[in-house]
Amino acid sequence: MTPYAAWLDSRIPRFYLRVPGAIQRALFLSVICLPAIGQSSRDLVIRENERKAKMEQRHVPQGYALIIGISEYENLPGNDLKFPVSDAQAIYRSLISKEAGGFPPENVHLLLGRRATRENIRLEIEEWLPAIARPEDRVVVYFAGHGYVSRGKGYLAPWDTNLELLESTGYPMQTLGSILNNRVKAKWKALFIDACHSGKINSETTNEQVAGQINSAMEGTQFLSLSATRGQEKSYEDEQLGPGFGLFTYFVVKGIQGEADSDPCDGWVEAGELVDYVRREVARYAKSKGVTQTPQFGSDFDPAMILGRARNGCLLSSRTGSAEIEVNLTDTDVWVDDTLTGRVSPGKPLLVPGLTAGDHTVRGCKEGYECDLKKVVIAPGLTLGVSVRIRYQKRTNEAAAALAHRGETLLYSQRSTVNPVNMLPVRRSQSKSDLVEAKGLFSRALGIDSQYAQAAYHLGVVNQLLGDENGSIGAYRRAIAADPTNTPSRIHLAGVLMETGDADEAIRHLTAALHLEPNNAEAHSLLARAYLDKGAWLSCIDAAAEAIRVRPTQETAHLWRADCERQLAAKEKSTERFRSAAASYSTFLDLTNYATPAVQWFAYHFIGFHLGGQHHADRKASYELLRAAGFLGMCICEGKLGRELRAKEYCHRATQQDPADPIAHFLLGVAGLRVFHKTGGCRDLENSRRSFQKTLSLNSKLDEGRHARHYIEEIESRLSELRRKGRC
Known about the structure:
alpha/beta; Rossmann fold; Immunoglobulin-like; 5 domains; four-stranded antiparallel β-sheet; 25 helices; 15% strand
């Protein structure tokens, strides 16, 4: 008897085993999925509604997380790892997903590679988490990289670990455990460590020693600690898992995404369920590969701690199986249950273990081709082979294509393949009637071919230009549904979401876009802008740096980085930060210093600086407002650096670029006052008064308006005094 038949035999009456296989399978599904005899479909609907209501009513605490991944080390030659960085990114995507972890993106700090220095790790663990987490919150810390032992003590290896100074350059495991236990006051806390990789850092470092030190450091703590291995085992990595994963992290991610939901089967992934799932599935998968790896948990923790969410509840999730997905075309993107799982090529199948028994969807997509969708049933304990066959080139109905072509001609005054999110001279028609006509043409094209992703994308662009944000969001979502590989639609959707104030969802879409195209400079730059909206300054700087690494001339990335550096400088009272911000502003202004108005037409998702409103893409004002923001940033930085005359000049240029910005006029007035204190010139005082009066005329309700009134009174009093003394 096969394992599958044995499993059926243990759960289904003998009667069902007498029928043919195909009917037997259908009856198996009916036993699993349908109500018991005597229970009406109405009863099932009521129970399902009760389950959904229970999920919605359950309170989930605010979440904070620190995610660390280090694959390559500055001073540890020969000890590089393959997947810690991508593992950390996968954990990050799972935690910020609304369907899984539900953590606000700005609350999840990500230290990857060279950013994961000892000092940065110390700051996050010893200062940020204790300061930010309240007693009612939940906290997650994840580390993937090397661990080592020196003089009998365990350490996590930061990027800048020094072989000659191991004890002072590593981060002590005991300190980590103590901080989380005693200083981080959150109700729920979880620590995941994947650090046993057989690295020969020093003679004391063995997997057994590292695992022992992890367990020792967590003894007596009151939070969940789950490490990748126990005893003498090694923490394995496997290129067959998705794009490549560490075994431990793969199943932590799958568990958080809902596969661990089992008992109670209520749609929530609790700590106890996650521990059981990860330990069982890692051990099972490792055994199938002829190796041994068993995750180890320690400490005392609340098993009801919520760590994830199942989208559709669970189905025998204590019983899992696997899918092995093969494709027929190179670089096929594969989605399992709407989650991008990996990029697959012929001869290199993608193994997806740890799937709950029951129905799943597998979709393979490749740009230029029709996607192939498979609905499969996973049986517990078995691996199901799934063949994704992409056969047909994506063909558009000729009539729909003709309509879309006419729409694009109206949308662009000259046809261009340039992605309109780029800061490049893309000239467009500015006639509203042309845009309205183009909208109608794209809508008609979609009426003929509902899967015409490019028409949906352009409909999103037109709606965005017309100020129809809801229509734009709907069109971009439609384009993504038709073609999940359509990265421009994901990026533009993120931009419009930010216009509507939903930076969290924008970050999720940008993260998905970067999963598809890791070197997309526009996505990195817009991600920096989203983090700027959320006040996540360090994440903003990191994302902007990635955009600049990919494309040094990515103008907006320099601006967003400058804004976030300036905010950090003010917070830290750091002169060096202000200098760095000024340098970034200067680079932005140099890159956008065009000589002719013809190239001042740029397509942006949005312009919103919290300095007077948001403006839609593709307006001439976009260029002017961006430049104004750059000049204003330079004004602030120069003032903080004590260079008042230069600050005044930059503020003056900001008012010229955007005469309707009351804050620019206010800051110009402040800069003029600083110059007066150095020169004593009456003209500086009079100019400052005019600037403050202009602020009030533009918007007297701002906080700056109250200060402007005060300054005007002080200036008039001072001018009267100077006139009496004959100095004016």
